[in-house]
Amino acid sequence: MxxxxxxxxxxxxxxxxxxxxxxxxxxxxxxxxxxxLADDEATWRSRAVxxxxxxxxxxxxxxxxxxxxxxxxxxxxxxxxxVYGMWVAPEARGQGVGRSLLDAVEGWARETGHGLIxxxxxxxxxxxxxxxxxxxxxxxxxxxxxxxxxxxxxAIMGKPL
Length: 161
Fold this sequence. Notes:
Order of helices and strands: EHHHEEEHEHEE
CATH architecture: 3-Layer(aba) Sandwich
């Protein structure tokens, strides 16, 4: 398994894994499959180059994207970085892919001068909470709605870098 940055010409493969993630685990994201499906090519191309941050993917031996995670400025916290849109395909779970994606985003955050990093996780996603806790993230106690069409909440977790 290789963890690397997305190349600009891979925007369609990034779109495909993002749409798969939204369809497979809709309660893990603040956007819906229908909303993302309506995004135009320019939007997807921008996500591949992430002008405000970085996009990483986990690439299987056959070249398929089986995981993704983004890093960027933390909303409302200028000194902090955030992990966004992290997901690992079911067939790649339990192999350290999630931890490797976190390590890649954290490395980017350190290189860009951030001293803290945070993320939001649906409070019912016990497997993700275990992963983030094992990686050193702690619950800040902050809660937000996942999105308008659900009662689910996200917990904000963070850690110093």
